[in-house]
Amino acid sequence: MDIDSYIAGLPKAELHMHIEGSLEPEMMFSLARRNGVQIPFANVEALRAAYDFSRLQDFLDIYYQGAAALRTEEDFHDLALAYFDRAAADGVVHSEIFFDPQTHTARGLPFKVAADGLLAGMAAAEAKHGLTSKLILCFLRHLPEADAFATLEAAEPWLDRIVGVGLDSSELGHPPEDFTRVFAAAGALGLKRVAHAGEEGPPDYVYQALDRLDIDRLDHGNRSLEDDALVARLAKQHMTLTVCPLSNLKLCVVRDLAEHPIARMLRLGLRATVNSDDPAYFGGYINDNFRAVAPLLGRDELTTLARNSLLGSFLPAQDIARHIAAIDAYVAGTDAS
Ligand code: HPA
Ligand code: ZN
User: Fold this and answer.
1) Which of 105, 108, 140, 197 pairs as cysteine with 209 (C-beta 3.0–4.6 A)?
2) Given a cut of 70, is residue 21 above it in pLDDT?
3) Is 199 among the residues known to form the active site?
4) Nearest C-alpha neighbor of 179 from the set 223, 211, 157, 217
5) What's the pTM?
């Protein structure tokens, strides 16, 4: 079996995917038309041509503009289901999706619109594909911690359907320690905690995410590799890193996929996973990301990435065991063929 077919059939979880970042240009224009919203681009081609980024902020500026096309619960449902259709086709059995409520409440949408729309899309995907999912509420780190607290308060009626909180948006100049209190409050409410750190920010931001935010998972984490003691600590505590190869390329976190650190991460004993981050903007869904790094890895390492994605998920242990058994069965079946 060739490697692309092997990747395609491999059961996997996705742990780092911003649902607003799965808004394809075609859907952005059709939602904008449906809602009477203006987009500052003439057409799909002009929009795609603008997806030429040299740093995280270049992308974020366009990503927040694009999210303005989303206005109703139905929009969020349709957005989520379109992503889950793509994910299911890529062999994703479970996905833990991020959403940015502040991007929507700042435009006057009630918290309910995004939350209930996404939850409806998640239920539809489970019924349609058997693909399970969880929802992670991200705080925007370029806004003050007080705004994050207000968001956590607005989320209160939904907290039984939200697995955890995350931290995203502009990393440089917005260190994790600025969100220490709101992460502690989220933890006290029984929520898991994840944070983007070490994408553009230094290793110190990763230490802060560990020590101040008490994270359960590290999003990106690439720059951890600059600090051997940090790598040893992450490996020792089996910290899951949600790595996003095509995102790293598009945002110039790496110069070239041939230099992508995923192989080094695995060989250093880090629990790395592969994810799509913002697939509509970065040129591919999860299997595109697996294929992008496949030349750097052996087949066993590709399988390890898939196993890591289940081990790093927030699923109950028995579900993780069931999915790992499916991976083992897949490996045994492809060895035989
Ligand atoms: N980094 C930070 N914030 C984000 C990203 C990312 O890769 N994607 C969407 N929001
Ligand atoms: Zn991200």
Assistant:
1) 197
2) yes
3) yes
4) 211
5) 0.98
